[in-house]
Each structure stands twice: as structure tokens, then as C-alpha cells.
């Protein structure tokens, strides 16, 4: 492997699958149980906020039962031991990367552990259930508190920082994502455009697999630690 000086890693639901969290588009995934238009769009929230709160309250509560796996720990080790630039961008709203020790991390689709006021746009740490009766602690509006997550049709977070990192990286690694949802699905093309080596680590070939310079398929808990070992031994 060519020695990189700047790495961007993108993760998706597959990196947390072996921790016990469902992916979205696998056959037993979240979108096979719930209609995304009802729970993951601003229109769905406007129609039935209580249903959306139930969906996210359940997922937030379930976080107490799950733990980071070997893939999360390997990425935290890569951040600690790699001497170049490093950025981990996750589409996941779980906090398993942080719990494994990752710090240079962007949650582009938001976080379970935060709430957003749709009225005043204040964002704050939030670990309790959300409901339509709550008043915003910042502006006092009642019924405007929502999960701080990015739904379809909304702008993902910190895109400027992500595109700067992609334009300067010479290794881009995509882990456990189906490559279905934009803009994340386009990151491989952004990285390739500036000459980066691009690697997919996924259980099976993703939708965008042919766009990568290299693809390795298998479970994240095996593929990611192996890849990180290989990378760190090549860089020292
Ligand atoms: C394993 C494994 C193991 C399993 N080991 N692997 C037409 C064309 C292009 C774009 C659009 C279009 N129409 C609409 C759009 C835009 C839309 C979009 O992309 N739609 C597509 C569905 C077509 N995107 C948006 O609306 C986004 N905003 C936007 O585009 O704003 C404008 C903009 C333009 C330009 C620049 C910037 C902005 C917002 C998208 C918001 C997505 N939100 C969700 C919900 C978040 C909260 C929540 O968690 O509830 O985010 S949807 C859901 O999908 C969630 C995920 O983060 C996201 C991605 O899913 P992910 O992670 O890839 O999961 P899966 O299940 O799809 O894949 C898992 C993979 O893991 C599989 O491949 C498995 O094989 C693998 N796996 N076990 C390794 N053990």
C-alpha cells in the first residue's frame, strides 16, 4: 500500500451491525420495518411528531445495551497512531465511535444524544426521551423539540469541513455503507478526483463498489482491524 499522509474514513451502519444495531437497507434492516417517509423526513415529523419521537426514543434508549466493537476500536487506534492528517466522518447517529475513543469525528447525519429546537435552532446534549409536550429550554417554544438528526431533504452537517478534508486526502476508506445516500455516496468520487487511493471495506459490494480503487469484503470486525494493522505497519 502506498504510504498516505492524509486519511479520510467514512463509516455507515455496517460498522455498528456487529454491536447489535440494525442497518437500514439490509433485508431485516430498519427500512424494512418502518417507512422512512414517516420517520426520517421533515414532512413525516410535521404529520405525526409523536410517531417520530417514539422511533428515536426507542433507538436512543437501546444505546444503553450496545457497545463498540473491534472495528470502532481499530479506527480509534488508527487516529491515535497515524502521524498524518486524519478525519473520521460517520453517517451513524450512535455514539460508538466516541465510546471507542475516536475524537477527530464528524457526525454528518447528527446524533442520538442531542436535541434540536425546530423553532430557535438551538442544539443541546439530550439523553432523555423527547415528546411533543416539551418546551425548548432555550426559547420556550412548546412542541418544537426534535431529534438532532439529518432527515431526507435536509442538509448534512459540517459539509464544508468534509469537502476540505476530502480534497486534501490521499487515502479515502469507506466502511459499512451501502453507498445509497448522497452526499456521502459521492465522497469516493470527490476523493478520486484529487488522486486519492480509495478503499471499500464492506460486507458485500456496495452500490458504488466499482468506483473504488480497491474493495475488500467481509465483516467489519475482521476487515477493519486487519486493514488498520496493515496501514500502520506500512506507515512506520
Ligand atoms: C456490513 C456489516 C458488517 C452490514 N460489516 N458491513 C436522487 C439522486 C441523488 C440524491 C437524491 C435523489 N433524491 C434525493 C436525493 C438526496 C437524498 C438521497 O441521497 N436519497 C437517496 C436515497 C437517493 N439525500 C438527502 O436528502 C441528504 N441531504 C441532501 O442531499 O442535502 C442536499 C445536499 C446536496 C449537496 C451537498 C450537500 C447536501 C440527507 C440524507 C439524510 C439521511 N438520513 C438517514 C437517517 C438519519 C437518522 C437516523 O439514523 O435515523 O441517515 S437515512 C439512513 O441512510 C441514515 C444513514 O446514515 C444513511 C446511510 O445508510 P448506510 O449507513 O449506508 O446504511 P445501509 O443500511 O444502507 O448500508 C449498510 C451497509 O453495511 C450495507 O452495504 C451492508 O452490506 C453493510 N454491512 N453488516 C461490514 N458486519
Overview of this structure, please?
This protein has 236 residues and is an alpha/beta fold. Helices cover 35% and strands 19% of the residues. The chain is built from ten helices and nine strands. It has helices at 14-17, 30-33, 36-39, 42-47, 49-62, 70-81, 96-100, 159-168, 187-193, 220-235; strands at residues 6-11, 85-90, 105-107, 110-117, 123-125, 145-149, 171-175, 197-202, 214-217. The protein has a six-stranded parallel β-sheet with strand order 3-2-1-7-8-9, sandwiched between helices. A three-stranded antiparallel β-sheet has the order 5-4-6, covered by helices on one side. Helix 7 (96-100) links the parallel strand 2 (85-90) and strand 3 (105-107). Helix 6 packs parallel to helix 10 and helix 8 runs parallel beside helix 9 (187-193). The longest helix has 16 residues, at 220-235. The two termini are 12 Å apart. The mean pLDDT is 97. Bound molecules: ligand BJW. Residues 12-14, 17-18, 23-26, 29, 40, 91, 93, 109, 149-156, 159, 176-178, 180-183, 202-204, 206, 219-220 line the site of ligand BJW.
Amino acid at each position: 500500500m502506498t504510504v498516505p499522509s492524509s486519511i479520510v474514513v467514512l463509516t455507515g451502519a455496517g460498522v455498528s451491525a456487529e454491536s447489535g444495531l440494525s442497518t437500514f437497507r439490509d433485508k431485516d434492516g430498519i427500512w424494512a420495518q418502518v417507512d422512512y417517509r414517516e420517520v426520517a423526513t421533515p414532512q413525516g415529523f410535521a404529520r405525526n411528531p409523536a410517531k417520530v419521537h417514539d422511533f428515536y426514543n426507542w433507538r436512543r434508549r437501546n444505546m444503553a445495551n450496545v457497545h463498540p466493537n473491534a472495528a470502532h476500536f481499530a479506527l480509534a487506534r488508527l487516529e491515535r497512531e497515524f502521524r498524518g492528517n486524519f478525519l473520521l466522518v460517520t453517517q451513524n447517529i450512535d455514539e460508538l465511535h466516541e465510546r471507542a475513543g475516536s475524537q477527530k469525528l464528524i457526525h454528518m447525519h447528527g446524533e442520538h444524544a442531542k436535541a434540536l429546537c425546530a423553532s430557535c435552532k438551538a442544539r443541546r446534549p439530550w439523553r432523555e426521551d423527547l415528546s411533543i409536550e416539551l418546551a425548548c429550554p432555550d426559547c420556550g417554544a412548546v412542541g418544537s423539540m426534535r431529534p438532532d438528526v439529518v432527515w431526507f431533504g435536509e442538509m448534512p452537517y459540517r459539509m464544508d469541513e468534509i469537502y476540505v478534508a476530502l480534497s486534501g486526502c490521499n487515502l479515502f476508506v469507506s466502511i459499512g455503507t451501502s453507498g445509497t445516500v448522497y452526499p456521502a455516496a459521492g465522497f469516493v468520487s470527490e476523493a478520486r478526483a484529487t488522486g486519492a487511493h480509495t478503499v471499500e471495506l464492506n460486507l458485500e459490494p456496495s452500490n458504488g463498489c466499482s468506483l473504488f480503487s480497491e474493495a475488500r469484503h467481509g465483516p467489519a470486525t475482521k476487515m477493519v482491524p486487519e486493514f488498520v494493522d496493515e496501514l500502520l505497519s506500512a506507515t512506520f
